[in-house]
Amino acid sequence: MNIVVIFAGGTGQRMNCKTKPKQFLELHGKPILVYTVEQFQKHEMIDGIIIVMLENWISYCEDIISQYRLTKVSAVVRGGNNGQESIFRGIEKAHELYPSDSIVLIHDGVRPLVDHETITEDIKCARKHGNAITVAPAIETITLKNDMGAVKEIFDRSRCYMAKAPQCFRLKDIYDSHLQSQQEGLTDFIDSASLMKHYGYELYTVEGSPENIKITTPGDFYIFRAIVDAQENSQIFGI
Prior knowledge:
Elements (H helix, E strand, L loop, with lengths): L1 E7 L17 E2 L2 E2 H10 L6 E6 L4 H10 L5 E6 L4 H15 L5 E6 L7 H14 L1 E7 L5 E3 L5 E4 L6 E10 H13 L8 H7 L6 E3 L10 H20 L2
Parallel strand pairs: 1-4, 1-6, 4-5, 7-11
Antiparallel strand pairs: 2-3, 6-10, 7-10, 8-9
């Protein structure tokens, strides 16, 4: 089976959200989170969706799931004290509900432009290699600075990629790695790819669309709106 764990536990501080978390901000009357979940709801290879949510917003989220008929959502679980703990809670629920040989796709609730092809290729890669990390080519120069703020190293941009999402693993592998990290007191991995790399897994990449942005700042939201409007115009006018 192919299961998605969607992390939607952010508070939106960099978006300057005053009334609601950024995943519930609306574009054309539809919350960002719904745009995201619909990408997986519509995909024929996805069997189930688990959403990790801020505790105080679980009821609101469940209402939205019902309103938009997101029937593949099997659970909404409470987030943890940090990103790693929150993702584990989603994986833990997946481990309760689905077979251990399932593929689990870990995705951001505010990454609503993931496309059908990327999801398909991620699943195929994970089935073949045991994992798949969605990436996009670096389009700007990447540097490493020293403690004094001076440039220490400039990387060959042609060999650099930006890790995005989904990040996909065999359910048993990612579940066991999280348990091991907890036993060792390692709770600050920046993402699942970093955690799995730490425990010796060779990671495989799938190049996704550059439009697969994460909506973190107001500027990201405006880009998202422009892309959605362009997509709608192309359907209406055949552009």
